[in-house]
Design goal:
mainly beta, two-stranded antiparallel sheet, about 45% strand, disordered N terminus
């Protein structure tokens, strides 16, 4: 994918020579080399069912493409035995395939250590915690559901040196999911209890801020 993008970028460069034939200008080369800015007008929100729509007054400002695993442990349940998710373990990449964010579960300090889905920016270490607020929307067989997650009050933190890319995040959407569901047959008896499964998945995560905060970027 990255190689194809690079080839496309090379094809998009236009060469001009001055009257002396000595100077070359590469149109578009600078734009290709610069990372995509995380401004609201750069991100087009996805088309989603009503239950996954972000409330009016919030604007998408960042999108990351996740590649990782959903990690489960087999435990007893009310119906017998079932896989229980104990953490995702994924890296989110930007449109240039550069590492952007890491995704996992961790205690949220603003909720007395309640375990929440967590995203930490790979460069400035700003962090956001969020919890799903919609009924799961299963779009593809064998895929983890699409989700709308809300950030609780004080659910973000700046990085140790003041990094604030994810600070102010209000909602997160997980969409375009593939994979990530553990096979029920592999957690069906007492002999399976304690077994773990690390199931590959991909997804897109869209991050939102209050419109006023996005306008101020």
């Amino acid at each position: 994918m990255l190689v194809e993008r690079q080839r496309s970028a090379m094809r998009s460069r236009v060469l001009f020579r001055d009257s002396a034939g000595l100077t070359l200008f590469l149109i578009g080369a600078v734009a290709v080399s610069l990372p995509r800015a995380a401004h609201a007008d750069d991100v087009t929100p996805p088309d989603v069912p009503h239950d996954l729509q972000v409330p009016v007054g919030n604007t998408a400002f960042l999108v990351g493409h996740a590649d990782g695993t959903q990690n489960y442990v087999c435990l007893p349940s009310s119906s017998g035995f079932a896989w229980t998710l104990f953490t995702p373990q994924a890296t989110l990449f930007d449109d240039q395939d550069k590492e952007l964010i890491t995704h996992f579960f961790s205690p949220n300090p603003s909720e007395n250590g309640t375990i929440r889905a967590t995203w930490q920016h790979s460069r400035d270490a700003s962090t956001v915690w969020a919890a799903a607020i919609n009924n799961p929307v299963f779009v593809t067989k064998g895929a983890v559901p699409w989700l709308l997650l809300q950030v609780p009050p004080n659910g973000t933190r700046e990085g140790p040196t003041g990094g604030a890319t994810l600070a102010g995040t209000t909602f997160i959407q997980r969409v375009n999911t593939h994979g990530g569901v553990a096979a029920p047959a592999d957690c069906a008896s007492s002999s399976d209890v304690g077994k773990k499964a690390f199931v590959p998945y991909t997804a897109d995560y869209f991050f939102y801020k209050a419109a006023s905060a996005s306008d101020g970027q």
